[in-house]
Amino acid sequence: KRVADRYLKREVLGEGTYGVVFKAVDTKTGQIVAIKKIRLGAQKEGINFTALREIKLLKELKDPNIIELIDAFPHKGNLHLVFEFMESDLEAVIRDRNIVLSPADIKSFLQMTLRGLVFCHRKWVLHRDMKPNNLLIAADGQLKLADFGLARIFGSPDRRFTHQVFARWYRAPELLFGAKQYGPGVDVWAAGCIFAELLLRRPFLQGVSDIDQLGKIFAALGTPTPAQWPDMFVPPPPLRSLFPNTSDDALDLLSKMLAYDPKTRISAHQALDHRYFTSVPAPTKPALLPRPA
Ligand code: ADP
Known about the structure:
Bound molecules: adenosine-5'-diphosphate
Protein name: Cyclin-dependent kinase D-1
Binding site for ATP: 13-21, 36-37
EC number: 2.7.11.22, 2.7.11.23
Family: Belongs to the protein kinase superfamily. CMGC Ser/Thr protein kinase family. CDC2/CDKX subfamily.
Structural class: alpha+beta
Active site: 129
């Protein structure tokens, strides 16, 4: 079946936050693509112009560590977003018990994640929904951030579909506190949680509700302001005790990515300049990274 005269529809890849994702062949280029069908349900007039303008901006975001938005068009009342097809994602890598992740592999995955963030943050685009299954892995081993900017265009997806609860584990404290103003620090926090997850091979802070999420953060990192609320003060356990086999450089970077105050939290750009990335071992070349069978 053809979509918009150009794409030959193949199998469904999965149900995502915004709708069904299916595989297709772009008959114009022969490229295998993934098409995200976004329900436009409530908006009777079709796609609003703000969304279209924002999507046009996303089409301009081209970087080796950002998944390319190849095309976007309305079809039968749904908005279709066409992306390059990706083989795997970081969640599959972390979960695969047959995969051993060396310190160099972890460094490489984090470096590619931060490079994607730096590129988008430079253009003032936030991701806002970073999690391991949004970090897709191409056939050549490059990690690419997916769904950039969609959270802002289509609204925060978290409460709309139940499977989205996992996004909570990567949510920065300022978001959990309901901040209306926030910045690129929310993506750095999430990248810090993903860094920790690569080290631990399980999600770092698994809250079952937003309040519980804050509790999990405080239990791991201590409460933020002992001066204002002495009775609630929980001295932070040394991060070292939670990550016994991790290098000092890695832990230093992790603690800076998980700084409470978004103003003092390290930026993606500064994080890439951290000595962790220049100390041994060197990050694994993407083509040599382990991948799920
Ligand atoms: P979520 O909203 O839960 O992050 P997505 O909408 O991103 O889910 O994706 C739904 C499914 O489609 C997932 O199984 C994902 O692996 C797959 N998928 C999404 N984008 C691509 C892509 N570019 N290439 C291959 N598979 C993809």
